[in-house]
Design goal:
elongated, 5 helices, 2 domains, mainly alpha
């Protein structure tokens, strides 16, 4: 029975670490594979003409006549194109950094909880109870001394 519990805990820990590594590595790899196709799609003249038409519509709607004040986008290129071309590496580094740190911390917490069940079994609880029982007389003596000091201080 103990072997089965240890096996299940080790399997769960392995699964959690594998999920964390997949979440760390898979999105940047998929983005890298899709980036070339997306850049090619957004480099077409049709995409640029759609962006220009959108900016033109925003310019027309930017007057004070409507219920919402529209702002004309400043970029002459579609933002997704600028992001894919200029800021993609920064986004990948940020993903790896944040997912590595936050996901790694969460993984360590879960692994610690799972391992804590194995390491903190009945033997650990008994040791804690024994330690508390041994400390009880000392605490009572310290409490008595503190009461005496308090009584002396009040006089």
């Amino acid at each position: 029975m103990v072997r089965r519990e240890v096996f299940l805990r080790t399997s769960a820990i392995g699964l959690i670490v594998a999920v964390w590594l997949a979440a760390l590595i898979l999105p940047p790899v998929l983005l890298l594979r899709a980036r070339a196709d997306w850049l090619e799609q957004w480099d077409r003249p049709e995409a640029q003409s759609q962006w220009d038409a959108f900016r033109h519509d925003m310019r027309q709607q930017s007057g004070r006549d409507g219920p919402v004040q529209r702002k004309v986008p400043k970029s002459a290129e579609p933002p997704i194109r600028v992001w894919l071309r200029d800021y993609f590496q920064l986004a990948v580094v940020a993903w790896v950094l944040f997912m590595g740190v936050l996901g790694g911390f969460f993984t360590l917490l879960v692994v610690g909880v799972l391992r804590g069940g194995a390491a903190g079994g009945t033997g650990s609880r008994q040791a804690c109870a024994t330690s508390l029982a041994q400390d009880q007389p000392r605490r009572q003596r310290n409490d008595e001394k503190q009461h005496e000091r308090d009584a002396d201080d009040t006089q």
